[in-house]
Design a protein that fits this description.
The complex is a heterodimer of chains A (262) and B (301). With 262 residues, chain A is α/β, with parallel strands linked by helices. Helix content of chain A is 11%, strand content 13%. In chain B, 43% of the residues are buried. In chain B, strands 1-13-2-5-11-9 form a 6-stranded mixed beta sheet. Chain B has helices spanning 6-17, 79-82, 144-148, 177-194, 198-211, 216-228, 232-249, 257-268, 272-281, 286-297; strands at 19-20, 30-37, 41-42, 48-52, 58-68, 72-73, 84-89, 92-94, 96-103, 111-112, 117-126, 135-142, 161-162, 165-173. The termini of chain B are far apart. Classes of the chains: A alpha/beta (262), B alpha+beta (301). At the A-B interface, α2 of A face α1, β2, β3, β5 and β11 of B.
């Protein structure tokens, strides 16, 4: 990001003028509120953006290249505030490019993989799974660094299946995953669907800089902080459950631009 | 093209691309849908997919959501028969047959409430029983009949905004180079793993791990397939190789998968001490590892 480091740390990377000028969202021109943070994402039918709907942001589900190939509602590289510099007319206009997220519902099954937030740190296809040198395990990031957010709904079907073996080893598959104690196992289809929504919310959370919950990766430490949508598997609670929500610990971390300091 | 007119152009083109079934009564109602092609890679060209090797069938996924507006009634369980698919190769139509299955994991039934969605998986094959050979195809998906069948809850015809049809460009060709060969094996292997067809998955995973011997993800998948085929010794060998990478880089929610499978393999081979050690290597304490082993042994029949 070539922007001044302050841009986006508090706001959403959009100037008041850009918010007044407005954006095209699902074919309709909308103006946005400078008093609220705006997150632009493409849309992943038929799950929408899952529990990312619960992010305390104004969500704008624009048409992306997966839904409307060639007719996406953002510019090159998913810049949502194109023409922001007015080609130099009017002098040095403050602000920087701000990108929308590309949220992808993957058609395939992928073994052991439910979601992934692919950043510019990874290879261009995001398929080689070769982490770059110095890459940290927990890739919290910001929209301008995201190539795409991927969710594999089909992989969640594994949570509903059981494993049996002629040597009398028997274990429902979902116990291989980080579900919470007391969760039903195997999941029902409805519980697995709930996990898909959580995965969308979880990965999009990473894309706006929210860290994992409950595995010690957060700074400051999340030890003792109750579960949220950023936790690992929750066991398929109803959508009103805390694990479908972002709490204060999560929302305090939201950023739209890179960290440049503590 | 400069950035100057792009938003206006996109606005105009996007509006033109929408077939407003009618905007008279429910101007804010909108259905949105997406096409996916299983086993394909998307390219930098929007709407273009690459499939490696001749295809016996095209696996098309349609996801439809009531994006905005009131509930909609419709024969959603019958969507398979209402979606029209045509395939052309170099401008010549190919007669195809479409079969499919309807997925309703969220229990939509005949009513699509606001924000609800349904999925349809379609298998498209040539009617003459042949396959889709190497070539460039255009597949067009048309949901016009779907939208004609929809009703508001008062029984009147659904009116709102929706994309009615869209073409996708399919390039079917042989993989070029190691990276594409890897993608081909990986896509095919995962497709069969998803179906739990382990022997066919192994047929793709074995050459894949030869091509990418350090790919912990493929090693783990091969271990799963071997384990499911009761090839415990083979499973243990590849899972031992997968474990370090898996523990470091895998999806945090699936992190127990490989250590558990490795321990299962050892237990099946009667190597209980190695099973315990594998779980310890995955970061479990002595007590946690012992408890996990008890879990993995499971109830005796």
């Amino acid at each position: 990001v070539s922007a001044p480091p302050e841009t986006g740390l508090i706001g959403d990377g959009l100037t008041n003028f850009q918010e007044f000028r407005g954006f095209v969202v699902d074919g309709i021109h909308v103006r946005t509120d400078p008093e609220t943070k705006d997150l632009f994402t493409s849309w992943a039918p038929s799950w929408g953006i899952g529990y990312a709907q619960n992010l305390p942001l104004s969500k704008h589900l624009v048409r992306g290249e997966d839904e409307f190939p060639g007719l996406q509602e953002y510019g090159d590289e998913r810049v949502i505030n194109g023409n922001r510099a007015n080609f130099g007319s009017g002098g040095d206009i403050p602000g920087s490019n701000q990108k929308a997220l590309r949220v992808r519902q993957m058609a395939a099954y992928l073994y052991g993989q439910f979601g992934f937030t692919c950043t510019i740190d990874w290879d261009a296809t995001c398929e080689a799974w070769v982490p770059p040198p110095g890459f940290t395990l927990y890739p919290v990031t910001t929209p301008n660094r995201v190539r795409d957010v991927r969710v594999w709904p089909s992989s969640h079907d594994d949570l509903t299946k059981t494993r049996s073996d002629p040597n009398n080893f028997f274990l429902p598959d979902c116990t291989d995953f980080g579900h919470l104690p007391g969760a039903s196992c195997p999941y029902t289809a409805a519980q697995a669907a709930n996990e898909v929504r959580r995965t969308f919310g979880h990965e999009i959370g990473h894309a706006v800089n929210i860290c994992h919950r409950g595995d010690g990766s957060c700074s400051p430490s999340d030890v003792g902080v109750p579960p949220s949508v950023m936790s690992t598997f929750a066991g398929g609670p109803p959508s009103s459950d805390a694990t479908a929500q972002y709490d204060d610990f999560d929302t305090r971390q939201i950023r739209f631009h890179e960290r440049t300091g503590p | 093209m400069t950035n100057l007119p792009i938003q206006r152009v996109l606005l105009l083109v996007s509006l033109l691309s929408i077939c407003a079934v009618s905007a008279a009564t429910q101007p804010t109602a909108s259905l949105r849908w997406l096409t996916t092609i299983n086993k394909s890679l998307t390219t930098d060209t929007p709407g273009e997919h690459v499939l490696f090797g001749p295809q016996t069938a095209l696996l098309v996924g349609i996801s439809l959501q009531n994006f905005e507006g009131p509930s909609v009634n419709g024969p959603f369980a019958n969507l398979v028969n209402l979606i029209r698919i045509t395939v052309e190769r170099e401008g010549r139509a190919i007669d195809v047959r479409t079969e499919g299955s309807f997925r309703d994991p969220r229990g939509v039934g005949p009513i699509l409430n606001a924000r609800d969605g349904v999925d349809v998986n379609l298998t498209v094959t040539p009617t003459d029983g042949s396959s889709f050979p190497i070539g460039v195809y255009v597949i067009t998906i048309d949901l016009g009949d779907v939208f004609d069948s929809l009703r508001w809850e008062n029984g009147e015809r659904w009116t709102g905004r929706a994309k009615v049809s869209e073409p996708r460009r399919l390039v079917i060709r042989n993989p070029l180079g190691v990276d594409e060969q890897t993608s081909f094996y990986r896509n095919e292997a995962n497709y069969h793993l998803g179906l739990r067809d382990y022997p066919r998955a192994v047929a793709y995973l074995e050459p894949l791990v030869q091509l990418r011997p350090d790919d912990w993800r493929s090693l783990a998948a091969l271990g799963e397939a071997y384990l499911s085929m009761r090839r415990y010794q083979d499973a243990a060998v590849v899972l031992e190789r997968a474990l370090p990478g898996w523990m470091r880089w895998a999806d945090r929610r699936a992190v127990n998968l490989v250590p558990n499978n490795l321990a299962r393999s050892y237990l099946a081979l009667g190597r209980d001490a190695d099973a315990l050690q594998a779980l310890r290597a995955a970061g479990l304490s002595e007590l946690q590892a012992a408890e996990r082993l008890d879990q993995l042994r499971g109830p005796r029949r």
